[in-house]
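Is this the right way to post structure tokens for a design question? Let me know if I should format differently. Anyway, here goes:
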């Protein structure tokens, strides 16, 4: 069961079209919802007139702020209105909800909702958010600061003053759109037990339920979340999008309702990866020891908090990458602006921070006249290294093994014939990566599973209940493999109930590369517990187990010391690029991606995660240039926001899977789904430097930017 490449049971349905995604659940007779969006970045609502919309044939209701029982929600803090009543703070703010008997009627009537606005000054630049004259996005807070995360260790200024070499760097990264294939959609209705059922897509059943119950003012048991087949998430479904709108309409009208967002609505209305600007100084001694890092990072959180607070902590923690630095002075800020809200996206702040840290380490090596890989060997984290937060790292620090394996793998590859023309410059680049696995900084981390064994002499059926979302990453097969292995039964014997908040206990979210470890461990422990009951002749044998990860802590308010994480994953990559110095275009030729996954539960799924994340990393690094102008989206569709296709991905991706067992994970497995995204951009930057002698510091490396760097 463990380590093989069992085929995905859901694959056939997804390929043939038989799988039912949220949009496939819509049935004749359901009412259709259409959101009236603000389409302006900052304005006061002076008048809202729904008369004409309500009068339109087929319209059943037009809901506004006054119809929302508790008009505030959010993953971390409830600062976002369900429907705006007074002020809109970004173009995707929702102002009204039209409910009609057909999609067409809802759409026409949405255009008949009259809203008179008085425009307010637009704050479109995160760097200005904390200046005294900046417009306040949430005036009642008195500041545009969402969160400030300082990290202090040793005395960075003193160490920089006595370092043999100090290098300065400035970096910027762009928004990234999740671009999942399946835009937001779903249905909702009230069932015979007076529960509101929301059948949709998401990353965490029980958190969706918590927020919706709060919005509707209902006990959680009266709200049921069910997930259909999910077409990708990548962090983009952590925040509510359509779920609470569906719930509100179904609850108010007591009729089944449905919604499907267009790609344009999806792009405008769900959060993005944070753009982050980083300024830093790194100090080293002539012998290669990195002695100090001082860095400031500002992340554009957009109009609402979402998970900005947690993302910016991750940025702060990883501004020194995976290197043991004795003196650190870091300040990371997340701020409000009138741009699109920013939140979770695969990597959760780590890609932005480590773009800067990995490039700085390589630049330091060049300035010292050292091999960048040698400088890494001197400074990389090792077992027992102190984190920036002054505590030893959790056990299992394998980044050195990842890097060494990357180099030995590279040595086995044949050299390619030289580029076909003199304007094509080819070179390899390298980078390492680190990412926390699971929830951080004291956030309660648990997963709960129930296992029930039926049969007489032998186990005829094992029912595993765990509310863990399969967003396409393959978690459901992994959990069944783990249960089957622990129970020593066939895969077919294991039935998984995972997609209904009323039928399965809380496993936490499909995020932070955590489900294989956390949900996997809960299923593993519950399976062994049920087996003990079975051996005691219980029929059926049934047990519920909550697995709690080793505790983490918030950082001390004065010393900033603490234990932010209970586990990390590590990676190293080598990327070969070819730069066309006439067009500025970059082709990725070959990639070696090395990952310590503890134990590959399903080898093909691990490879799938590596290849998928690399495609996303390639887009992030070279193509995906999400742009806003004065709070308006300048890249509203997939014709202006370019994501990679199969033709952009290299024919050769060499995935190297290391299995250095994690002490906590089920069968030693540790999470890995975010990691391939982290070293990629700095490895490409390094390769471009090695090919052309110029450093690029602003992501993405579009042809225009490459040319500007080559011919300033
Ligand atoms: Mo994720 S960015 O941990 O959903």
């Amino acid at each position: 069961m463990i380590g093989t490449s069992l085929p995905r049971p859901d694959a056939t349905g997804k390929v043939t079209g038989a799988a039912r995604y949220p949009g496939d659940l819509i049935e004749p007779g359901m009412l259709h919802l259409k959101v009236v969006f603000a389409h302006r970045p900052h304005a006061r609502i002076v008048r809202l007139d729904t008369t004409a919309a309500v009068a339109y044939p087929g319209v059943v209701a037009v809901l506004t702020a006054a119809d929302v029982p508790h008009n505030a929600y959010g993953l971390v803090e409830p600062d976002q209105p369900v429907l705006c009543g007074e002020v809109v703070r970004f173009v995707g703010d929702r102002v009204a909800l039209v409910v009609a008997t057909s999609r067409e009627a809802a759409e026409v009537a949405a255009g008949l909702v009259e809203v008179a606005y008085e425009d307010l000054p637009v704050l479109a630049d995160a760097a200005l958010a904390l200046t005294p004259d900046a417009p306040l996005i949430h005036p009642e807070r008195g500041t545009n600061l969402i969160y400030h995360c300082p990290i202090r260790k040793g005395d960075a200024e003193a160490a920089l003053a006595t370092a043999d070499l100090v290098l300065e760097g400035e970096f910027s990264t762009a928004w990234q759109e999740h671009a999942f294939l399946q835009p937001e959609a779903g249905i909702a209705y009230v069932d015979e037990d007076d529960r509101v059922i929301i059948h949709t897509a998401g990353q965490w059943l029980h958190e969706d339920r918590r927020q919706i119950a709060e919005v509707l003012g209902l006990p959680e048991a009266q709200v049921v979340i069910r997930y259909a087949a999910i077409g990708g998430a990548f962090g983009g479904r952590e925040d509510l999008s359509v779920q609470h709108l569906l719930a509100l309409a179904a609850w108010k009208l007591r009729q089944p309702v449905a919604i499907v967002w267009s790609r344009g609505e999806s792009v405008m209305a769900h959060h993005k990866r944070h753009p982050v600007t980083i300024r830093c100084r790194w100090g080293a001694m002539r012998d290669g020891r990195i002695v100090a890092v001082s860095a400031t990072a500002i992340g554009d959180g957009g109009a609402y908090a979402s998970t900005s607070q947690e993302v910016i902590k991750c940025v702060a923690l990883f501004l020194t990458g995976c290197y043991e630095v004795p003196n650190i002075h870091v300040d990371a800020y997340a701020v409000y602006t009138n741009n699109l809200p920013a939140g979770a996206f695969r990597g959760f702040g780590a890609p932005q921070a480590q773009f800067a840290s990995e490039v700085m380490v390589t630049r330091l090596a060049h300035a010292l006249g050292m091999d960048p890989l040698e400088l890494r060997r001197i400074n990389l984290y090792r077992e027992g290294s102190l984190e920036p937060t002054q505590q030893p790292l959790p056990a299992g620090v394998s980044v050195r093994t990842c890097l060494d394996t990357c180099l030995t793998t590279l040595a086995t590859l044949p050299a390619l014939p030289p580029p076909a023309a003199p304007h094509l410059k080819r070179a390899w680049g390298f980078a390492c990566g680190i990412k926390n696995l699971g929830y951080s900084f004291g956030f309660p981390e648990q997963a709960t599973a129930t296992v029930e064994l039926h049969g007489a002499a032998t186990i005829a059926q094992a029912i595993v209940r765990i509310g863990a979302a399969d967003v396409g990453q393959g978690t459901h097969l992994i959990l069944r493999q783990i249960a089957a292995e622990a129970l020593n039964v066939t895969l077919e014997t294991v039935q998984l109930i995972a997609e209904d908040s009323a039928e399965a206990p809380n496993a936490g979210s499909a995020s932070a590369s955590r489900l294989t470890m956390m949900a996997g461990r809960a299923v593993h422990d519950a399976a062994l517990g049920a087996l003990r009951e079975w051996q005691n002749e219980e029929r059926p044998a049934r047990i519920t187990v909550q697995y709690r990860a080793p505790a983490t802590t918030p950082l001390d308010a004065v010393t900033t010391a603490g234990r932010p994480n209970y586990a990390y994953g590590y990676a190293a990559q080598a990327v070969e690029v070819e730069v066309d110095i006439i067009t500025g275009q970059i082709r990725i030729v070959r990639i070696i991606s090395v990952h310590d996954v503890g134990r590959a539960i399903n080898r093909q799924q691990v490879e799938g995660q590596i290849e998928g994340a690399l495609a996303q990393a390639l887009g992030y690094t070279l193509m995906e240039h999400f742009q806003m102008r004065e709070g308006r989206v300048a890249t509203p569709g997939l014709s202006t926001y370019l994501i990679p296709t199969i033709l952009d991905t290299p024919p050769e991706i060499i995935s190297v899977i290391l299995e250095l067992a994690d002490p906590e994970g089920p069968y030693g497995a540790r999470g890995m789904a975010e990691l391939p995204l982290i070293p990629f951009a700095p490895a490409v930057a390094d390769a471009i430097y090695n090919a052309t002698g110029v450093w690029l510091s602003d992501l993405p490396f579009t042809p225009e930017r490459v040319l500007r760097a080559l011919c300033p």
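Format looks fine. Someone answered above. Worth noting: The chain has three domains: 12-120+184-260, 276-439+558-710, 446-548. Residues 446-548 form a domain with the Aldehyde Oxidoreductase; domain 4 fold (CATH 3.30.365.10).
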